[in-house]
Amino acid sequence: MQQANRPEVHFHINPREAHDWRGRDRLALFTRLAEMCEAHGLVYRAKARPAEEMQPRDGAQDGNLHIVENGRMRGIGWLNAATAYIRGFWHMDPRGVQAESTAREAVFDPAGVDGSAADSFFHDMQGRFVTPRRSRFRQPRGVADDLPENAVALFLQGRSAYHAGRCKLPMDRMILGVAQGAGGRAVVVKPHPQAIDEGQAAIARAVAMGARVQVTGANVHDVLAAAAVTVSVNSAVAMEGFLHRKPAILFGRSDFPSLVTQASDAADFPRALNAALSADWPYPGMVHWYFGQHTLELAAPDFEDRACAAFARVGFSRERLGLAGAAVMLQSDRGP
């Protein structure tokens, strides 16, 4: 039974899926949170996310906890949720998502990372994603054999990477700048699998301006294995590249600026390339720090503890939610 005055948890989901969200892979966090609520008799509800919740604003304090898919809400009782680059990991943040989370202010310190734990986590992640060549989006199964070694791998993205001024360099100018500043290295360009036409059009414009590149649709892990460095606006491929021990250069804002080399514009790319390739990057520590400190892993044994820590950041402690010392039980009156 729901205790009197006990808060509810409200999921704000995109209107297309708000009434059919449970079990959907792209909304897996909400399914996992629903299971957690059920186990503790905590009422949850799903509702269609209003468009204004995707703009920075303070949310109303109504005594309930709100979790907004791809939101930018702030204030007591409001969290924003989005996938965190690698399948199975999510952000749940009090400020925003996609380069607007509080994680972007954190600075990685290798000395603060448990080396043994980092190595173990890194090896596990390689086994889960690199060895089986798995990525967030569907990839070709065939192994590419036409990729140049030690190339600059440029990964294009869709329009969302450019929202809210996250990157001011147009896609075609980025391609041209990378091609001209690669210092003799081959440049391999992979369009985003969900924005193929847009990527191909930008490549065509860049080639017309003089860019010399090799376009590929190969499995992202084949591209990463052959590359010397990844380049993007702020793509998840940067994180996947770390699993291949490849540095990343970003042209846009990200949630992990202390783990990459930033290029301010096309003219800055040669400097950024030299800096990225010259640095000694502690990849296991980087990966362990980011995913361990700034994300929730849905299948992790400590998922509930991490979720509760996120709730507490916006004023909803275990005690306030009625979870402290609660026996695990299945709620008989399930949510939606």
Model description:
- The protein is α/β, with parallel strands linked by helices.
- It folds into 2 domains: 9-84 and 295-321, no CATH class; 112-289, Rossmann fold (3-Layer(aba) Sandwich), CATH 3.40.50.
- 30% of the residues lie in helices and 16% in strands.
- The protein has helices spanning 28-39, 115-130, 171-180, 196-208, 220-226, 237-243, 269-278, 283-294, 303-313, 318-321; strands spanning 9-13, 44-48, 57-58, 65-69, 73-74, 78-83, 89-93, 151-155, 187-190, 214-215, 227-232, 248-250, 261-262, 296-297.
- It has a 6-stranded mixed β-sheet with strand order 2-1-4-6-7-14, sandwiched between helices.
- Strand 9 (187-190), helix 4 and strand 10 (214-215) form a beta-alpha-beta unit.
- Helix 3 crosses helix 4 (196-208).
- The longest helix has 16 residues, at 115-130.
- The radius of gyration is 21 Å and the shape is globular.
- Mean pLDDT is 93; it is low at 326-336.
What is the gist of this entry?
The protein is of the alpha/beta class and 336 residues long. The chain has ten helices and 14 strands. It has a six-stranded mixed beta sheet with strand order 2-1-4-6-7-14, sandwiched between helices.
